[in-house]
Amino acid sequence: MQVLVAVKRVPLTGGRIVLTADGQEMDTRYLGFAVSPHEECAVEEAVRLVEAQGGSSAVLTLGPAAAEEQLRDAMAVGIDRAILLQADEGEWDPGATAAAITDAIRAQEAAHGPFDLILFGNEAADTGDFQVGIRVAYALDRPCLSGLKGLTVADGRLQGRREAAGGGWETYDVPLPAVASVKEGINLPRYPSVPGRLRARRKEVELVRPAARPAGLVKLGLRVPVEHRAAVEILGRGADAAPAVVDTLERIGVLDA
Amino acid sequence: MAVPDRASVVVIGAGIVGNSMAYHLARLGWRDIVLLDKGPLPNPGGSTGHASNFIYLTDHSKEMTAFTVDSARQYVEMGVATQSGGLEVARTAARVEELKRRMASSHAWGIDAELISPAEATRLVPYLDANVIRGAFYAPGVLVVDSLRAGTIMRERAQALGALTIAAGVEVTGLDVEHGRIRRVRTDGGDIEADTVVIACGVWSPRIARMAGASIPLTPAVHQMISVGPVPLFADTVGEITFPIIRDMDTNMYERQHGGDLEVGSYAHRPILMDADEIPSIAASALSPTELPFTQDDFSLQMEQALELVPDILGDERVGIRHAINGLLSLTPDGAPILGQTPEVRGLWSVAAVWIKEGPGIGRTVAEWMTTGEPEIDPHGSDVARFYDHQRTDHHIQARAAEGYNKTYGIVHPMEQWASNRDLRLSPMNGRERDLGAVFFETAGWERPYWYESNAPLLAEFGDRVMPREAEWEARWWSPLINAEHLALRERVGIVDLSAFAIFDVTGPGAAAALEHLCVARIDVPVGRVIYTPLLNEAGGIYADLTIMRLGEQHFRVVTGGGMGMRDKQWFVDHLPADGSAQLFDATGAWTTIGVWGPRARDVVQATTAADMGHAAFPFATCRPVDIGGVRTLASRISYVGELGWEIHVPIEQGARAWDTLWDAGQPHGLVPVGIGTYAVTARLEKGYRAHGNELELDFDLVEAGMARPTVKEADFVGRAAYLKQRATPPAAVLCTLTVDDPTSSSGVKRYMLGREPITTPDGKPLVDAKGRRSYATSAGSGPSVGRHLLMSYLPPAQAVVGTRLQAEYFGEQYPVTVAVAGATPLFDPGNERIRS
Question: What pTM was computed for the model?
Fold first, then answer.
């Protein structure tokens, strides 16, 4: 079982987002970084698949040198090896990102053999374009299942399921090699252990410099939407508040009548 | 959220400190207290919110230990403490020795502790790898506390008294000052008129203080913590903690159980300082403003070291790193808190750079200070007034905070010198001193020679009388040249650079009356007299001691040691009359001071001047202008070394000329340069001269210190009533000088104590006086002229008898000591013939 997970370094923001003075970027000076929750689950899914079925896993990211941190986070929970597509300047829109990742996958497969499964998070937490996984699948001419909340791999096939509009589940069945994007909730990701962190620290990260590509979308700037401060209403104190609480729950329609 | 439009006191900040302040002020009778915080309660997002919450009681500092012990008592009383016990483990031989010092401090302050073996340590903490350590210090009294709950309880108690209004989610936007006094707190919820404001803002304190034009010299700094779990061994734990805490001293780390997790903290990484203005807002923070993103690289070595010590837990793959932060806390340039009324703004109080373990104790102390002016615990080391201007600069704060950070669990020698930001305040003789091979120690930023390498020939001259030290610890930051210089000064004459004095002039028609009211000694003396006087607070505790020269009808010059110079100055400033009839001018930068003392001092000085330096013409304790080498100096015939001679005050720009003139005149008489090792330690110990911070503190009174004069002046002064009461009762303790009879250790090495050693009965029991104070060496040092190592200690009256045999504990061994003097009679030259010759 050969699995690849693609992730993206994103800032961990608080309740309010602060922009740089020129309005072009988020001010990340005091922010930590991680990968999107969907991608965290994709990494966990990859680790579990290899634990169950043997084989090996890899993680790759297109990002600045600092994105090595996210690759090591993934290796700390059990991904075997990492590839950094180092891209510092310029805006990489979904088209350019997908093209660079596709090139990298082709190079990896030429060197190490094909990936049975390539996993993406459903969308990145910052840009939210929902495109990269699908574009890569198309370029590689492989079936793509997106928005998965469950998947199994057996007998050379991928089965995946996702929530259907209006309730219930849609189930898909495709042959490997395949591409899938997963949603948070598909599993509960593990925390890295101390030995895991130390092992990840000692591993080499493969460095690739993808060719720059002209961007399709060009960012003009960022704007923080006007904040609507929620009003807080104290319903009451202690047991006396119970009737008001029940009224409120009824009003918002969460009680089984 | 609206705020009241006036208050008797506004406390800004609702962390452990602000909550403690609100409670203790209410308890002491304050009403209309307003407590503000820009964050929500109970956790507004400051350092308290992510604190590791454990309390080790023993500190080498008496003051810090007193704050901590009081805090622990309060936490227990509030029912928020769990007694987990704690270890400090030793990985190195040097640390094993240091743990013996921890034991000595524990004994000196009365804290239960013992030294245990690795096997015993593992019995207490099974997940500790005994192979990694050589031993441990175990304190069963170590506590873990719920500091947020404590804060809530303290607020509720204040509210129950009807004393407190709380406004959370309110941010201070300005502080208005009028005529040097705080008048108003401006917030985003309205303005509050108040003439007393307390800044308890933790890492934000410098920013808030700046709004009023005041300075709180601390810097926010990172310390890292991770939390791992679930730990299988902790699965059955009920409550927060059942296993003792581990402080891994040599790696600057700690490990503590927290429910099902193990928290691992580090003070070992590179210092990471921040500006208070850059701390993110609550809204912009992912966790809280003081829980910043974890920088993994800074923790890599620590992970390996922690894994070595607790492999069973940290090496378990099932145990995940569930939480990791770069937490913010406050660091100060000298490592002590910052407490008291700010010198810049009346009514504006600082209670900053305070750890959980001191919070409630400091809250009580500052509340007492604000209410009566007489805190029960002496806070002189933490006084906000202690800082010189240069110590308030960002350059200094950052340099010293960074240097001090990695010493958090370090082995810090009592005489250890700072390395950063040196060579700032240089006396005009500095170049001469370098040429003489001076080894410089710093006091208040001044570089003063502690001894001179050029005196090496004196070692041959005096041989073993220099009391050489074989053991590395007490030989560190020391030289036998100190004792050689001491002997040369007593035998012939020495010249001493005294440039660290703080000097200020008090002038005006009201000067004499103002000083008369502050000083124990009589101030209305003839012009040209030098007065040595203690200063007391209203409760009769010893606040300071210093000298004052009367230079004119309305002109007095105060000379005090540099260490507490700014604090002493503030005391005078605070007590000047409101009508402006007495003015204070800080003249420190205008003068340098040179001491010339010894049997041949008169010969030397007389050779430089036409002024009559004879005994009849220039009596002891007088001062007058004396022209030396074309320099008009002010010579003062006093002596902290107990010899004939003068303290010569020289206009600072002419200091080198005066030094050179005296130097040249001194050569035929065998004049040697003498450093502060002699001036501040050896000579004064032989004379029994007391020192502030050692023998003289608020804890003690003049009768106990043996400084009560035969009569008390009629004029009223601060502390007079209390002092009269003290004189009318037998003292609970008597300050004594003791000799070390035999310094030979069990391994045959002569050991020499450095101070703070517990003094015990011959069978090793602590000596405790009627006020509950334990006996410990307030000072220690060589007495080369009397051929003995000397200690000073307050002893209960029964032991304060010449000839009484006692013991002093030093590095785990008991050494026999004998009471040589009970009271203030000097051991050397008891009749003071040399001074008055």
Answer: 0.94
